[in-house]
Amino acid sequence: MFEKVEDYPVDPIMIGADYFAQDPRADKLNLTVGIYQDGDGNTPVLHAVKLAEQRLIETQTSKSYLALTGDAEYCRALGHQILGMDIYDSLVAAQTAGGAVALRVMADLLAQIPDSPTVWLQTPTYGNYVPILIAAGARFQAVPYYDPILREIMFEQMLDGLKEARTGDVFLMQGVCHNPTGADMKPAQFDALLNLLEKKGVVPWIDLAYLGFAQSFAADCDMAHKIAARFPECIICITLSKSFGIYRDRAGALFVKTNPQDRAHMQRALSAIVRSGASHAPDHGPSVVRTILEDASLKKLWLSELDQMRMRVTKVRKDIVATEARDFGRNDLGYLAYQSGMFSLLPLTVDQEKVLTQNHGIHIVKGGRINVARLTANDIPHLIRAFHSATSNS
Ligand SMILES: Cc1ncc(COP(=O)(O)O)c(C=O)c1O
């Protein structure tokens, strides 16, 4: 029977990790990973998380099942933090195993709506959206978002592509620190996009994965807040993997703003979809997050640790640009200083990507994505030299 199983495409990020493991060179460099790393190449457990975990061990009295949509207290603490109390009352909420499950639950729901809406996606965007939408059986179409060669957002082309969207369709965008481009819309562009979505009756779907990595946790929630305050219906998916450094503990949430008369049946729909798929979300990561958000001193500590992660990423970006100018007399990578978050795209052809990996041992995600958080001070000149060599030889 299993011989009939078709060959499944594997996420390029995972393929990249495999290639890296097989590379025998001692000085190889893995820029494929989608996690924060400090200057020593570690992904530390935050002190605030450790303290919250200790508190949970001492105080937790049961590990029985939660509701299918999770711990209402966790959803409320998170929703209040990100969107504010007033908006939270108009939402349907579910605790999910990270952001990927929040996305999948929503994709399932959209696919099951009669005359299901089309989900409009940016190109390029997070590599797991399409597999999730396909697995759910949801309809989707793409509009341009970013030109890696020009190193800029294709804003007019994106709006132009959305002219085809129908009322009731959905536009899936990211909050801050766009993955994989690092290029976020300017506030005026974001406002113009919302004007268009509103005019066309397209429902915004915002995916928040890097809150705190652009300007600050509070400022990075602005886009979601603006959407939820303005639109009668919208979708918000969140992962806390990066903001709390709890990748494997799987903390996320799905918030859906609905018209008041739709809330009860939407809550039942979300419960039913969760039951038949992911079933109950894990508790540990979300309980850590709730404990931190509900305690002023833990929250202060967490926010300062998040600030440190953001400042490191910003510094690496600036160091790349300064090193290229000072030691190489060039500014090919100057755009990195204006982008945000862990990821950016190197403007490379497929052949140039191969040169980077084969000749220089630098592993990046297909399409040119690098994780700047992975770079140590010594890696920076190595990357610049390899990039110049790859782009001048082919
Ligand atoms: C934009 C975006 N959305 C969602 C996710 C999924 O997060 P998680 O792995 O916590 O489910 C990621 C993870 O990298 C991401 O970059």
List strands and helices in order, with pairings.
Layout: H1 12-22, E1 29-30, H2 47-59, H3 72-83, H4 85-88, E2 91-96, H5 98-112, E3 118-123, H6 129-136, E4 139-144, E5 146-147, E6 152-153, H7 155-161, E7 170-174, H8 187-200, E8 203-208, H9 217-220, H10 222-230, E9 234-239, E10 252-257, H11 263-276, H12 284-293, H13 296-328, E11 343-345, H14 350-360, E12 362-363, E13 369-371, H15 379-393
Parallel strand pairs: 1-12, 3-4, 3-7, 7-8, 8-9
Antiparallel strand pairs: 2-10, 5-6, 9-10, 11-13
Helix pairs in contact: 2-12, 2-13, 3-12, 5-6, 5-11, 13-15, 14-15
Bound molecules: pyridoxal-5'-phosphate (PLP).
Pyridoxal-5'-phosphate (PLP) is lined by residues 34, 98-100, 126, 174, 179, 207, 209, 239, 241, 252.
- The SS-based structural class is alpha/beta
Low-confidence runs of at least 5 consecutive residues: none
Q: Could you tell me the number of beta strands?
A: 13
Q: Can you identify the CATH superfamily of the largest domain? A: Type I PLP-dependent aspartate aminotransferase-like (Major domain)
Count of helical stretches: 15
Helix content: 40-55%
Kindly provide the radius of gyration, computed on alpha-carbon positions and rounded to a whole number of angstroms: 21 Å
- How far the N terminus sits from the C terminus, by CA atoms, comes to 46 Å
CATH class designation of the largest domain:
Alpha Beta
Mean pLDDT: 95
What are the bound molecules? pyridoxal-5'-phosphate
The SSE order reads HEHHHEHEHEEEHEHEHHEEHHHEHEEH
